[in-house]
Write a structure and sequence with these properties.
Number of helices: 12
Radius of gyration: 23 Å
Number of strands: 21
Length: 421
Amino acid sequence: MDHFLYRDGALCAEDVPLAEIADRVGTPFYCYSTATLTRHFKLFDEALAGMDHLVCYAMKAASNQAIVKTLADLGAGMDVVSGGEYARAKAAGVPGCRIVFSGVGKTGDEMRMALEGGVRQFNVESEPELVLLSEVATGLGVTAPITVRVNPDVDARTHAKIATGKSENKFGIPISRARAVYAEAARLPGIEVVGIDVHIGSQLTDLAPFRQAYEKVAELTGALRADGHDIRRLDLGGGLGIPYTRGNAAPPPPDAYGALIAETLGHLGCEIEIEPGRLIVGNAGILVSRVIYVKSGEGRVFLILDAAMNDLIRPAMYEAHHDIVPLVEPAPGVEQTPYDVVGPVCESGDTFAKGRLLPPMTAGDLVAFRSAGAYGAVMSSEYNTRPLIPEVLVDGQEFAVIRARPTFDEMIKRDTLPYWL
């Protein structure tokens, strides 16, 4: 469910007509709904009721300060994968005790930043990282709390580019070697083992892979406790998918996911951490764009928008589907026309959809890409010297620009010419 609905024929974000925002801000732009962000976070939090838990929002999905603070004020922790995301979390007022530092390539500087600023734990992904973290922590005279991310070799049944839990993926340590790695962690100075971490991928639409992974984690917990490790926290990652196409079967809801966690791991007495990103923010955000031209081609009609692959790269990168809807509600029974929906970037890959059925469109019409809140704005770029587009947050009848569109002068002035030019 989201809060982008037609009211009196106009698509609205909560109580604000999106056309009104387009008139004030210009197009294209991203728009997020506070009500949807709040609802989705609470669904996860309630799904783990009865268990000691912390829901850590995966900031890589959408890291605007306004989104981070909205969720932090609800009690969310943060899952960060870079020094920049850590700095964003701190700037939004998230205390270090609610920040989990993940990522396969943490640097010594990033470790130092988190240890000095406060961190809940590092999710360690390799033995070299473990050794470096020990050196950095002892150099600062502190102890680094850690989990080891184990790779359970489970097929998440998702897109190959967002699967992370199989043996050929770069993430984590093979679960078969976990006991040896934990023994090394126990020997190293400046390291405190607090738990186990696992994350098998993103956009999962079936609970079965989670069950396979969590059963392996339960078995490993028993083995590590028998080895003398104080395993008191289980970080289960994120990955629960969202419905990108309305009308299709929806992925399992958070309450079913929570029930699975309780069934497979609840008997261990561990604190549970989960790190959802896409399901919290994905359907809480849309991309609004304006039609520049309707162009007739050989056997097809192109709908050329002012949004492009640099603004929303998921269709080009993942062959991803986003529902595209007009901001003016079509009349019942209106005849649909197949369009190839494309952007103005000089790439054939700048294609959002082929043969997409839409009501007849003309230049100047506004459309919205649904389910664009996750991995939209954060993956955008200035390719073709196109400015990063604004982000807008709606709360009831109010809206605010939470990232402004830069001018061409601002973009160009970031360049520095060498003295010989």
